User: What shape does this take?
Amino acid sequence: MKIEDATICTSSGAVRDVLKCLFFHGPTWDGNIPSKQARDGLCRIGLVHHEFGFAFLTRDGVEMCVNIGLPREKERWERAKRPPYQDFS
Assistant: This one.
C-alpha cells in the first residue's frame, strides 16, 4: 500500500466509518455497510474485499485499521459496554 492510499483512507468520514464497521464487526452484509461508495473505493485500493454480498477487510485493511488507532477505540467501546448502535430504549 502506498502512503497516498493511507491519506485517502483517513481523509473521508465515510471511508473511516466503513473501516470502523468492518474492523469492529468483521464481515458485514451490504445492507449494514455505512457507505457502499466508500466500500467500493476501499476495494479498488485493496483494503476491503467484497464477495457474495459481504465485505471484509484484507490483510492490508487490517493493517490500516491498526495504524489509524482503531484497536484502542474498539477497546474503549467494549470497556464501556456500549452497543454497536444507538440504543433508544
